[in-house]
Structures are given as C-alpha cells and as structure tokens.
Amino acid sequence: MELLSILLQATESTFGIMGAGIGAGIAALGAGVGIGRIGGSALEAIARQPEATGDIRANMIVAAALVEGAVFFAIVLCLLVIL
C-alpha cells in the first residue's frame, strides 16, 4: 500500500513523469548489458568445454529470462507512474 501512495504522489509532478521515462530507459539499458554479458560468458564457456554446450545453453536461457523478468517489472512500474 505504501508503494501505491508513492506512485500516486509521483504522478502529480512533471518530474515524476520524466523520472519514469529515465527509469524505463535505464532498465532497458541494464537488461541489454546483463543479457550481453550472459551471452558472452556462455560463449566463452562453450569454447572451453564444447561437450557441455547443452547444459551451458540451458543455464544461459534461464539466467536471461530472470533478467528480462526483472526488467519487465521495472518498466511496468515506470509506466504506472506515467499513466
């Protein structure tokens, strides 16, 4: 309930809307960097141990999905401030 009151107060000013846009952008940039690092590390691991390709790929997909889930949550919160 406390988060909702904070979000409602933020929508009353233009700074809240501007901050929501900046927050959504930072969340998207963070996701790009995080998934890029996950992919790069997975490729390095596959190059070192080609026999473990399936396990590495599965773990990479799970980690990328967790990063995307956190980013979608952040973007939805930013959109709630705007609307």
Can you characterise this structure?
The protein has 3 helices and no strands. It is mainly α and 83 residues long. It has one domain: Up-down Bundle (F1FO ATP Synthase). It is elongated, with a radius of gyration of 18 Å.
| CATH level-1 class | Mainly Alpha
Q: Look at the structure and give the mean pLDDT.
A: 86
- Can you tell me the CATH superfamily? F1F0 ATP synthase subunit C
Helix content: over 70%
State the order of secondary-structure elements, H for helix, E for strand: HHH
Largest sheet at a glance?
none
Radius of gyration: 18 Å
H/I helix tally: 3
Name of the CATH architecture:
Up-down Bundle
User: Which segments are poorly predicted (pLDDT under 50) over 5 or more consecutive residues?
Assistant: none
Indicate how many domains the architecture comprises. Answer: 1
CATH topology title? F1FO ATP Synthase
Query: Beta-strand percentage?
Result: under 5%
Can you count the beta strands? Answer: 0
Distance between the termini: 18 Å
**Structural class by helix and strand composition:** mainly alpha
Shape: elongated
Quick synopsis:
By secondary structure, the chain is mostly helical. It has one domain (2-82): F1F0 ATP synthase subunit C (F1FO ATP Synthase, Up-down Bundle). 89% of the residues lie in helices and 0% in strands.
Topology:
Layout (H helix, E strand, L loop, with lengths): L1 H9 L3 H35 L4 H30 L1
Descriptive keywords:
elongated; 3 helices; F1FO ATP Synthase; 0% strand; mainly alpha
